[in-house]
Amino acid sequence: TYQIIAPLHILLLLAVTSAAGHGVKNVGISTPGPAAAQCLEYEPKVVSLSGVIVRETHPGRPNYESIANGDEPETIWVLKLKKAICVTASDDINVDVDNEKEIQLVLEGEQYKRYRRLLGQRVTVSGKLFHSHTGHHHKTLLLKTNEIRRWPGP
Length: 154
Hints:
This protein is mainly beta and 154 residues long. Helices cover 8% and strands 45% of the residues. The protein contains two helices and eight strands; from the N terminus they run ββαββββαββ. A hairpin with an 8-residue loop joins strand 5 (73-88) and strand 6 (97-106). The radius of gyration is 22 Å and the shape is globular. The termini are far apart.
């Protein structure tokens, strides 16, 4: 049996014939799927994503259901992406995610002050992705933010 691993942009067709000319035998072609080649990785990998930062308010403690019914408001920063991303699973918490266009930013108190002027702006954010796992996580994906830079373009 032969196994060929090919980059996505190359399609290989392999025909293996026996010396006696008896036709094709034991052919195996293995290519990573399109999602695998384009998907990002969870922490500890550092990723950079570009989009617009917006502020959103969601219900918090005690029930995480309704501010009008008494839950505390939780204000978060969200990076809205122009193009959806996918992330490849790394464990039972950081599972496969596909077609996500909103990332909740996880910032230290000082970072909110430093980057406040970038709200509503197009930016590039670097950090480590992780999957939501508490009531304070209001988006599927979160990014432990290292740095935010204004997008250099118009």
